[in-house]
Amino acid sequence: MKRRLLYGVFLAVLVLGAVLLRPASTLVQALRHDAHDLPTDAPGYANDVSRLNQTRVQAIVPVAADSARAVAQLQHLLIEARQRKLPVSIAGARHSMGGHTIAPGGIQVDMRPFRHMRLDTATGTLTVGAGALWSDVIPYLNRYGRAIHTMQSDNAFSVGGSLSVNCHGWQHNAPPIAATVQSFQLLLANGTVVRCSRQQHAELFGLALGGYGLFGIILNVELRTVPNEVYAYRRVLVAAADYTTAYRQHVDRNPRARMVYGRLNVSAERFLQDASLNYFEFRRPAAPGLALEAPALAAVKRAVFLGSKEDDYGKALRWNAEQLFSRLTVGTEVARNQIMNESPALYLNQSARRTDVLHEYFIPRRQFAGFVRRLQAIVPRHHLNLLNVTIRNVYPDQDALLRYADEEMFAFVMFFDQPVDAAADQRMAALTRELIDAADQLGGTYYLPYRLHASAEQFRRA
Length: 462
Prior knowledge:
Elements: H1 2-32, E1 45-46, E2 55-56, E3 59-62, H2 67-84, E4 88-91, E5 107-110, E6 117-120, E7 125-129, H3 134-142, E8 146-148, H4 159-164, E9 181-187, E10 193-196, H5 202-208, E11 217-227, E12 229-239, H6 243-252, E13 257-264, E14 274-285, H7 298-310, H8 312-329, E15 333-335, H9 336-340, E16 354-364, H10 368-378, E17 385-394, E18 409-419, H11 422-441, E19 445-446, H12 456-461
Parallel strand pairs: 3-5, 4-5
Antiparallel strand pairs: 1-2, 6-7, 7-11, 8-11, 9-10, 9-11, 12-14, 12-15, 13-14, 13-17, 16-18, 16-19, 17-18
Helix pairs in contact: 1-7, 7-8, 10-11
């Protein structure tokens, strides 16, 4: 009997080892391949986060941190640029791809030092310099029990850049960030500073929000903030074709829903057939100064994500790990500021030989399932490494002229891993144009902050 028991334990250990061996091996291999050898920009050149757009420039000029000095500095710079017939571009965190922050042969203004902040505690209005990052803003507001209403799902972007691309995020059933802007100061090309709002210089207000720096340099911004709150996490696993039905039931009809995102399964066996709907329900107000904690299990999460780059087993492992983790954390309480204070360092590429490329398509609710079918047909044909599809909801934009949401849209945010070479970029361009056509045929649009692969005709149609 004792021998039989020992034999059974031995077999159980062997089976458990066999079950755990491959996932453990995948994670170890992923971390071993996690090279941290990103090159620095060559002197006299600027680039963006893709590292596919190295461009020679005349100068990169950091703006002064002091408001009065910064305005005088920029006014002088614009006079010099006009005299020398040089273009001027504006950069913050430089997470936009495709050269939106770079003018060839021009002057690039680095706004990052311009990051002052002041909260009006009576009105909840935040006045902030355009160079501040959300990673600066969130801890500052957290001390007062306040939070940003609308921003991206990560904290590494600048305020001015976020307004210039008119960002959106996990803040469901709401327009883009433009709707939360009360006013901003804009430095025009002739050196004049004007205050833009819905009442003052209203045309410039709509042009500069989502205007990619084409109409002036955004200086100080007044943003509406909201109370920081404690939420409970919820999750629903559904067929991708049923996502909007589940969304209507669990989000549209749920007055306690506050933040929402979806994921699609990108493994080959179940390619875009499964979806998870993840949402956060209001529980109670958060106390001012509630501690912001470092991300839990950061190394494990990065290993799982990197493993999905290696092969399809890694993609399936990541999907299954996320579903298991989600099931274990359903009901867990977390503050709004904690959710929004996530760094993209968990998933950003750090290797000189590869890069991350984003796509984003905005699709009317009624065409959601149709676009999923188009993705299932189009993406595999191009043999590119799709790592992630996140789904977000955005309501119609009433403020920006160059807007991507004229009606309620579901955004498909697609994250690809790509070699840093011309051949891979050409394949990515072909995929992008085909997906833009698919979105356009369904009444949708595409997002401009990414690689400049759209044709001029596609841009005009969208």
